[in-house]
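DM from R.C. (forwarded with permission)

"hey, sorry to bug you on a friday — could you get me a structure for this? deadline for the figure draft is monday and I only need the backbone to look sensible"
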Amino acid sequence: MSLESLKKVAMLAIGDELLRGDISDQNTPYLARFLVQHGAILERVVVVPDDEEQIIAELRRLKERYALIFTSGGLGPTHDDVTIEAISAALKREVVISPEIKAQMEHFYGGDIKPAKLRMARMPAGSELLFGAFRWVPVIICEGVYILPGVPEIFAKCIDFLSPHFAGSALAGQAVYLQVGESLIADELTSIQKRHPEAVIGSYPFMEDPPRLKLNVVHPEAAEVAAVIAEIKAAFAPYIIPQEA
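My reply, with the result:
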C-alpha cells in the first residue's frame, strides 16, 4: 500500500470566531489524528467565515477534488448559523426540517420545540442521519459531506462515533530525536526522502540551545517505516539522543 492509494480527506471549518482568533481550532487536529488512526490523510483544510456565498464556493471547490469532506460549525439556532443553507445550495438540494431530528429534540427537551431551536433540525434534503454520538445531535451525511457541530467537545464525540465507518488500519509512524541543527542534516535527509518517496519524513526543530530536532516518519506499512528509521539512525548516529533529553 502507498500513500497515494490512501483516502484523501478535506475539511471545511466554518466560523467568524476562528478567523478572528477568538478561539483556537481544536477540531482540525482532532480530525487529523482520527484519520491517521483509520488509514486516511487530512490533505486540505479551508477556513471560512459564517458567510453563505463563501461556504458554497469553497465547498464546491473541495468537491471537485475530494469524495470525503468534513465540515464543522454553523449549525446553531441564530442568524449567523448558515451552514445548512450553504451546503444545501452547494449540493443543489432543498433545506428541509428532518422529522427524525425534530423527534429526537422533542424527546430530549420534553415537548414542543420553539421555532428558533427548530432551526437545528434542518438538513439538506435526502441526507443520511446517524444518531447516538451526543444527546439528540446527529451526524448529517450528504454526498460524502459529513456535517458536524463546531463545539469541540461535541465535534470530538461525533468523530469518535464514526469510528466503525472508517475501517482502515492506522498509519505506521516512528520518531527519532537528534541534537543538531537542521541545516547540518538537510542534504542527507533529502537523499533519504528521495530513496523513500512514499514515506512522509518530517523535520521539526525545537527552539533550544543546543538545537534539538524531531524526525518523524509515516507510511502505511510498518516495515517501510522501520527501513527509513534505520537509514536515519545510520546517517545521523552521532546526533541521536533520547526523547527526554
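R.C.: lifesaver. The longest helix spans residues 52-65.
me: no worries. The chain has two domains: 3-165, 172-241.
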